[in-house]
Structures are given as C-alpha cells and as structure tokens.
Amino acid sequence: xxxxxxxxxxxxxxxxxxxxxxxxxxxxxxxxxxxxxxxxxxxxxxxxxxxxxxxxxxxxxxxxxxxxxxxxxxxxxxxxxxxxxxxxxxxxxxxxxxxxxxxxxxxxxxxxxxxxxxxxxxxxxxxxxxxxxxxxxxxxxxxxxxxxxxxxxxxxxxxxxxxxxxxxxxxxxxxxxxxxxxxxxxxxxxxxxxxxxxxxxxxxxxxxxxxxxxxxxxxxxxxxxxxxxxxxxxxxxxxxxxxxxxxxxxxxxxxxxxxxxxxxxxxxxxxxxxxxxxxxxxxxxxxxxxxxxxxxxxxxxxxxxxxxxxxxxxxxxxxxxxxxxxxxxxxxxxxxxxxxxxxxxxxxxxx
Amino acid sequence: xxxxxxxxxxxxxxxxxxxxxxxxxxxxxxxxxxxxxxxxxxxxxxxxxxxxxxxxxxxxxxxxxxxxxxxxxxxxxxxxxxxxxxxxxxxxxxxxxxxxxxxxxxxxxxxxxxxxxxxxxxxxxxxxxxxxxxxxxxxxxxxxxxxxxxxxxxxxxxxxxxxxxxxxxxxxxxxxxxxxxxxxxxxxxxxxxxxxxxxxxxxxxxxxxxxxxxxxxxxxxxxxxxxxx
Amino acid sequence: xxxxxxxxxxxxxxxxxxxxxxxxxxxxxxxxxxxxxxxxxxxxxxxxxxxxxxxxxxxxxxxxxxxxxxxxxxxxxxxxxxxxxxxxxxxxxxxxxxxxxxxxxxxxxxxxxxxxxxxxxxxxxxxxxxxxxxxxxxxxxxxxxxxxxxxxxxxxxxxxxxxxxxxxxxxxxxxxxxxxxxxxxxxxxxxxxxxxxxxxxxxxxxxxxxxxxxxxxxxxxxxxxxxxxxxxxxxxxxxxxxxxxxxxxxxxxxxxxxxxxxxxxxxxxxxxxxxxxxxxxxxxxxxxxxxxxxxxxxxxxxxxxxxxxxxxxxxxxxxxxxxxxxxxxxxxxxxxxxxxxxxxxxxxxxxxxxxxxxxxxxxxxxxxxxxxxxxxxxxxxxxxxxxxxxxxxxxxxxxxxxxxxxxxxxxxxxxxxxxxxxxxxxxxxxxxxxxxxxxxxxxxxxxxxxxxxxxxxxxxxxxxxxxxxxxxxxxxxxxxxxxxxxxxxxxxxxxxxxxxxxxxxxxxxxxxxxxxxxxxxxxxxxxxxxxxxxxxxxxxxxxxxxxxx
Lengths: 351, 229, 549
Prior knowledge:
The complex is a heterotrimer. By secondary structure, chain A is α/β, with parallel strands linked by helices. Chain A has two domains: 6-253, Rossmann fold, CATH 3.40.50.300; 257-348, CBS-domain (Roll), CATH 3.10.580.10. Chain A has helices at residues 46-53, 76-80, 98-102, 104-109, 113-126, 131-134, 144-155, 174-191, 202-208, 227-232, 237-243, 247-254, 312-321, 342-348, and strands at residues 6-13, 23-30, 35-39, 61-66, 69-70, 83-86, 162-166, 194-199, 211-216, 220-225, 267-269, 285-287, 293-296, 306-307, 326-330, 336-341. Chain B has helices at residues 25-30, 33-66, 71-83, 86-97, 101-125, 129-138, 142-173, 184-190, 195-223. Helix content of chain B is 73%, strand content 0%. Chains in contact: A-B, B-C.
C-alpha cells in the first residue's frame, strides 16, 4: 500500500472579479501516510484548496506537488484516476449497482473482470459491508451510512496514493457519524494512506487529524500543527476563538487514562486490616479476590469505575456526575490499577 | 359478344348490417386485408419518422448541452415546426418536394423535433450534480462522463419523449395520404360514412399507438433497471 | 417559389373562377373567420369542462391516474379518426364537429390543470387552511393563481391542436380553411397553398398570443425574467425557416405508384397480346365511386390485354384530372361528355346537344385540340339530378325541377364544391330555372346521400347511377327544361399513347365497355357503396362476370 507526499507551495486561487483570493499562498507539507485536516469557517477556502490538489479547480499561481511532481504536468483525467475522491453528498451513480460504482475507475484503467470483482469484494469488506448482500444493490436501496461507505470504497478502488475527502461524514446523523469516523480511523491504521480531509467541525478535525491546518477567511493559513499543539498553543486570536474556549477540555479528549500517572490507594480484602505504608490516597479501597473494586472502606460506593483506555475527558465527566474526587481505575481484567483524581487530570493539562 | 351477364340484385328492401351502416364484425373479418397494406405504410411512416427525428434531436441536444446559447434558437425553430399543423405542412411542402412518402416524412420528422429535443435536454439536466462532480473527480473525461453517467441517467426522460413523439406521429400519419404517402388515413377518408370502416381503421391506429407506447416503455424498463429499484 | 407567391396573392386578392364564383381575398377571410370561430367555441367549451374538473380533482388529490393518462390516450387517437367517427355515428353538422373538437381539446387542459394544482407548494395550501380559508377559497386564491401558468400551457396546446384539426371540418360538412385544402377543385392549387399558409399562420399566431397570455398570467412573484429578445428571436427564426424551405427547392416528383395489381391470367375473351407489353399506360380517375370503378375496369381490362398498366385513381375533380392527363402524369382517364363540354370547352348548359352521339362528337373534337383522343363512349349515361327524399317530395308536392320555383326560398341545396360554378349544377339551376335557394352548402361528393337521409339537406345533387336512390327511395325531379346534358363516359387518352397502342387499344376498350349499361353501372356502384367492396374487387367482378376475364 503506497502513500504519497503532498506539498502545497504558495498555492493561490483568485476568482475573476473578486478582490480577495479564495486561497492565499497556501504552503504546507503532508507527510506520506498522514491525515491532514483542512478546517475553518465557511468561505475560508478549505474546499477550494482541496480541489486544487486534483485540479478540479486550477491554481492561479503557486504549485502543488504530488510525490514531488507538479500536478500541473499531468492531464487532469489521468491525475484524478490516481487520487481517491470522496465528497459530502457521495455522488454515487444511481444507475449502477454498488459493485458497478466501486468498479468505475478500475474499468477506466482496463482491469480484467475477475480482478475487478475480487477487488470490489475486498473493498466492501474493508468498509464493513457484506459483499454478497450489497454488491448488487442500487444506491437508492441503501441507507445514508451505507452510501458513505460505498463512497469511501469507491475512492479506494485503485489503491491511490492520495485521498481527498470533502466533509464525507457531514450529512450523517451524529451517532452514525461517530461510528464512521472510528471505522475510518481503524481503516487508516491498516492502509496508512495520505489523506487530505476537509471539515468545518473542529472536534472532527481534532479526532481525525494527524495534522490540522486552520484556514482563515481569505484563504490564509492560520496554523498548521498536530492537534495537541493546536489546542495547547493556538497561534493567534482567530485560532484560539476557533478551537473554542473549551480547548482545555478538548485536550482532555486527546489523552487516555493509561497515559497519566495514577495515584495508589491502600487495597484491602474484606474483613482484613488495611495495609500500612505511604500511599497517595489515604482512603482504603476494598477489593475482592481477583482485585476488582467492591467499595471504599469508608462505606461509600466505588463509583465510577474508570478503565485505562478511557479518555480523560470522559473520565472527568463521569467523576463529576458521581460527585466524587476519586475513582478507581481498572485494567482489562477488571483489577484495580490505581486511582484517578480530579487533581491528576488538572495536572495533565499543565504545559 | 358478351357471353356472361353481370348479376343485378334488387336492393330496394335490403336489410343487412352493411346496408344499415352499423358496426359489422362479419364485414370487417371478410375485408380485413384491405387494411393490411395501409397499416404497414403507417408503421413505416411512424417508425422512420420517429427514428430520423430522434437522431436529429439527439444530436442537437448533445450540441446544445455544452453550448447553452444554442438552446433558445433551436427551441424556437423546432417550436414553430411543432406548431404548424401537419396538414398545412404537407401542402406547404408539396410544391417543393412533390407528392409522396418523402414529403410526409419531412413534415412528420419536423413535428417530433421539439418534443424529443426538450426531453433529451431535460434528462441530461436532471442528472444529480454530485454524481457529475464525483465522476469528474474520479477521472472521467468529459466524453466518458457523458456516455457512462449522464446519458444512462437521462434514459427514462429520453424514452418518455420518444413515446410521446411516437404516439403523436401515429395520429399525424393518418393525414399522410393527403401528401400521397398512403397510411390508414386513406382508408378512413375513402369511406368516411361507413361506421365499420372508420372504427376499424381508427382502431388500428390506436392499437398501433398503444403497441409502440408499451413497447418503448418495456425497452426503457429493460435498459434502466435502476429506476425501478 | 412562384407557387408561394401565387398562393400569397390568392389570399389577398379576390378573383372569379370560370363561371363567376368569388374565391380568395375577402372570401378567404370568411373561411378564416369560420375556422377561428369553430376553434374558439370548441376551446372555450373544453376549458369550461376541463378546468373546473381538473381544479377539483387536483384539490382533493384524487383521480390522478385518469387525469394524467387522459393526455396519453388522447394523443393516440388520430384527429382524422375522431372526426370520421363522429361523422359516421352522428352525421354532419356544427354540433357534431364541435363535439369532436371538444373531446380532442379536453385531455391536455385536464392534465395540465390537475398537475398544476398538485404541484402547488403543499405548505402554502396548508397555511391557507390554517388561516381559515374554505376549500373553495383555497382553490380560488391560492391554488388557481399558482397553477395558472401550467393551465395556460394546456390551453395553448389544446388551442393549437383545435386550430389544426378544424382544417378537417369540411369532411363533416362544415366550412373552414380546410375547404380549399380538402376540396381543392374550386380554389385550385394556389388556393390550396394559400389556405395552408393561412392555417399555419393562424396556428403560430394562436400559439404566440396564448404564450403571451400565459406569461402575463404568471403571478409576478414566480415569474422568471426573460429577455424581450424572445419576440425578435421568433421572428428571425421564422425567417430562417422560410429561407431554408425555399433553399430546399428539391426537384422532381416523388410519386407513389400504387402499382398494377392485375391478374395476368389468360382471359376467355380478352386476348393477351405480347406485343402490347412495350406500351405502358397510366390510368387515372376522378374522386367518386363510379369513376374509381370505371378506372379499375379499364385498367384491369388493358392489363389483361397485355399492356403495362399503372393506376392513379382518385385524383380529384375534373380540372385536376385534365391537368394530370395533359401534363403527362397520367395517360388516360374516363370523362363524361357533358362535363367536358361544360367545364373544358365553354359550352353553355342549354346549348349542349341532347343527343348523346352528337355530344360525344363535339367533345371528341374539343379533346383533339388538347392533344387527347376521346374513345367511343359507354352505353350508360350518368347525369346530375336534383334529388330529395320521398317524404320531402310529398310534402312539397313537386315532381319537376320547375315545381321548385314556389319553394326555392325555403330550401337548402347541398352539392359538391365545384357545383357552385358549374352550369350543369347550381349555376345552371340559377340561370336556366331561375331558382334562388335559401342556402347552398358544399360537401364532399361522398356525402351527397347522407345529407338527405340525415335531414340536413332539403335537396341534394346526385347521379342517376347512384344505387342509394333505389335503396332509400329518393325522388329524382324531372329535368323539364332539359338543363342536364347527357353524360356518357368516354376514355380520354393522350395522343402519343393512343397512337402507340394503335387499334389494339380501341378494340379492348370497346370489349370492356360494351356491358356497361345503366343498370349494370348502378349495380357496380351499389357493390362498392352499399356492400363496401373495393373498386378493385368490383372491377374484377365485372370483368369476370361478363366473361371478359
């Protein structure tokens, strides 16, 4: 599975009759295999910038290099067959079956039928659709979520080194959107493509992106950084406003419980005497034979029970809900691994 | 020198279905073969006119699809051809092209142009914008997009236009005999008073129109299974 | 090109035909007025029927299948068949034709009204109901105005269809601009072309004016702005089309030959002579039953004798036929001695010889000057006669044509269009008998009996050999002033062909004609008109039964 590098070099687009450029000297580099999210308010030029990469819109000046080669050198149709393209409304061809849709570019390239059929099945499974069931369906017979998946499969058909995705999950309801996002991230771990992902939703950007490019009105690049850096050190007031006043909480979404140093509390079996010694937390925690938390010795319930894989933000939310400062953390087997406190969470935000 | 004699019948008190000018199935059955040739003339006129009309309109529509400024002039000209009554058209053409099938075909073809042109264009315009964007983004050239995406999606509307053109042409072709081109209209005109004749000839016209209409509908269904899904 | 110029002149300048009948110019205007009146009445009635129905159905949302498919079915029924159907079942007359046109006009208006109402934004309708409007108020104030553009579109389509179909009205005995087109005799080719141009013009004018009304009726809020360039474009387009049409000036005729369909079998009496095979003869005929039968008899007889025969029957009236034979389009056709003398050679009706033989000689001489050979005539004579039902004859108490003088002011006479100008027809009745009828109505020759039986006509011009006379018991008034000349049929042949064919031709013709007595001719006509056999069949039957084949 190959992935290409993408580099914007002072890429600019000015529409005739418009005083301001739509994209203003955009320069950034997307390393191979990474997801770069273009995010910003509407009208900031993020979609324009993306569409310049596959020459759906031609640049006024500047250059875009795909694996070091200028996109201007290639003929548009040829170039686009090497770039995966997924848009918000998906744009499945209503008159073709799912298989037909996915097979569009392979057919253009002249693959033989058996190879195409095999590839179609492979891709459908990749996007968690049952090939036997969906292969011969028409788009009108699919749900919104299913259509999106087919759209992604279609974009991946010829294993392109670059994927362009324009708000692909924008038209989906929140529940399914989250599922699709998670699935795509899982997929990306497998196939490791270079992806340029456009969205207006900062939360999605933070979740999906390895790097985030925040664009301001007028097509200017405000900041280009990994999510943690973006949240911790916004480059200017615009970015600060854009990421939101709750960026501290947003940062908590980026960390998991297992990444922080947990406090230790004395663990005691029922009926036994608590051990002595220096502990971070003075309140003994009653555990059972397997080490699973039962209750605090003081009598209060040992809730909530946090898992090592939880993100800090969710952990904090649960602790606030239970009106407690401390919560036991368990590992995969359910045995206590430590205690999480609000203080720890606060400390993790420190620069 | 005449050996035989022509038989003369006394008709003063004759009562028969035909004499009473009723609807006479017997007579129709016996005389059905006089409608056969005109029927095939009619079929020929209709099918050829619609086919030629389709080819011309289709070409014009493809041309106008990419050059929008052509649409208005084409619609205006074909609109006038459509408005001029076919009977008048036959006679306007007579001095130029003479009597015969050609004259009739010219007028009949002219009549179909507006209908089919409008429908092909409308069908193409109704293709969802996102499908076209996705297609272009995937690397389809302009021509590939047209033939693999836009035209297949426009088929239902195109065929609808051809159906209307076909049924209307069947009706108009009944007047083709005025231009010397034969057809069922000649049979109607030959004995306009005789009920059985009018009903048979007229009925065959309606039948032909129905068959063509249904046939084209079936073709469309076969060619675009996705529209029924 | 010249044809078109002549035609346009015809529209604007009145002129007189041979016998003093006015055609063209203001008379055309009269026809156009009739045409538009008929169209208007039919369209208005159709609107009055279809629009309320469509509004109601659209408002309640029912009957969609019928409303929408009405147009599909309506399109499939040919207008000619519709008119013919009504003529056959209801007879001729204004009401019947109007009814047919109304039926033609309803489907597009109904469909468009229904769809127009349905496509009104449901939210608007909801809001209206929510504000307390009754159903009728909703229709009137919300649905109707928003549906108007589509409704007018339907009216437009229907109106143009009706104007076009009104051209067929003469088939049902009604005057319209179709007269010069269908009954081409009186007006000639120029008149026919002129009428065609007028009809086309009226149709386009109807379309454009209703389109303007449609635009004006569109509520301003939903009107799309179009440049006023549209009218200019229409004009330029029209000019472009006319220029293109003229540029087409294709040459030559594209005649559709029916092709001879003769037996070819060896005949008992008519001998096949192989030498005749080099000679080709095209046989024509005029446009009524007797003529078609005669044409078939001659054609099949000559074919049996070995000539190469083509048929071009049903050409039109006598003038058309004469033009065809002198022009070479056909080689021969049967003409009547009386008709020839009157219509071709300018003999006045009261000067025509009553002796058939003398009449034939005079006619023959006249034809000779035209380069045509008139062969010896048939035994039968088929004169024009004034006919009426026996009831009417009793009621009026008339036996001769002169008897009509007391009643002529109250009577309507129906006849073929060319009757008006013929001195062996209306003109003669006016001149010789000094009759002044209340009204003369031109109808297709085929309808000459129907108008009597249906009661529309008091009097009709019929032929002595018409079988219907015996059957219906019509009374033929005696020609006491001797106005109607003898009409024996003679085959008129082009000189070159006659010379080429030689004696053979004359011999075969006399063989074939010998058995054609008055009675036999009437029988043969009866077989076509009453038994509904084809002229071809009857022609063959005559030849076979006479032992010629």
